[in-house]
Amino acid sequence: MRIHLCAVGRLRAGPERALVDDYLKRFDRTGRPLGLGPATEHEVEDKRGGGMAGEAALLMRACPDSASRVVLDERGATPDSPGFARRLAAWRDDGVGDLAFFIGGADGLAPDLREGADFALSFGAMVWPHLLVRVMLAEQLYRAASILAGTPYHRT
To answer: From CA 99, how far away is CA 96, in angstroms rounded?
Structure first.
């Protein structure tokens, strides 16, 4: 199952970029034998100033049409890490070929994009900077693959 991180904004060189690259590399290495990956980033920027609607259109174009869509939103489900791993495995086992995670910009995601999603995922009620959300998602993808592989990375 191919993973797509569709995000508003560009991660420049720095600690966030290094963390995302490291966790996605680990995810690919751990997840491939499990049928998870590769993980690809799709960064979009709305240079025309279309707001959330403009960003939503760019995000939708960035992912495959057939992808199952997951939005990162504070109103979404808040599974623990093993629960997220089980959800990821269920998508894979249900034959999902492409899974796209949408991370909005400073104003969040457009309501129509949120409403059209197959699943909404939250990292808690707090609002997180979208650059950190990308790091957190990359780490949780790696953690989920590690849980499914039975490696000691995730300790309960």
So the answer is: 7
